[in-house]
Design brief:
With 155 residues, the chain is mainly α. 71% of the residues lie in helices and 0% in strands. Among the domains are: 35 residues; 72 residues.
């Protein structure tokens, strides 16, 4: 009859975190030399379990990042749809000047492309908050244009 349950000891060691084999043997009151002979493959198995755990954590972090990116994309698409409807309304009422509409759409596209990681800001380009403020100003120009002008402009 075996004095030690080596299967249970292997499982306990492999799942024990960062303990060394020597510390584990002391805690289990087993002679280190005996454990070392029996545990030749335990460290490899322990590393494999740690690597698998790290892979799972990385997978979950990646899934979260993908979910967050998709959420941002949905928000941008919803916002873009609302802006297009607003611009169409302003154009229909003769309040939008083509230059203002083009400027607003250009700024919106740039903000979206940077937010999605498609483009990187240029060194001389203003920050995201400033770009957004420029976009709001451009949209305000569209919305504040008085009726009856016909949206005509000398470009």
């Amino acid at each position: 009859m075996a004095k030690y349950d080596w299967t249970a000891l292997r499982r306990k060691y492999v799942t024990s975190g960062n303990k060394s084999l020597k510390v584990f043997a002391l805690e289990e009151k087993i002679p280190y030399g005996l454990v070392r002979k029996k545990a030749a493959e335990w460290n490899r198995k322990k590393r494999n379990i740690s690597e698998q755990a790290e892979d799972k954590v990385l997978e979950k972090v990646t899934e979260k990042k993908v979910y967050d990116t998709l959420k941002i994309n949905e928000q941008h698409l919803d916002l873009s749809d609302k802006i297009v409807k607003l611009v169409e309304k302003e154009i229909g009422e003769g309040r939008a000047r083509p230059k203002d509409v083009a400027q607003a759409l250009e700024i919106l596209q740039r903000v979206q492309r940077i937010a999605l990681g498609i483009d990187k800001p240029k060194p001389d380009e203003t920050g995201g908050k400033e770009r957004l403020n420029k976009f709001v100003e451009a949209m305000n120009k569209i919305a504040d244009k008085p009726k009856g002008d016909g949206g005509k402009e000398n470009v």
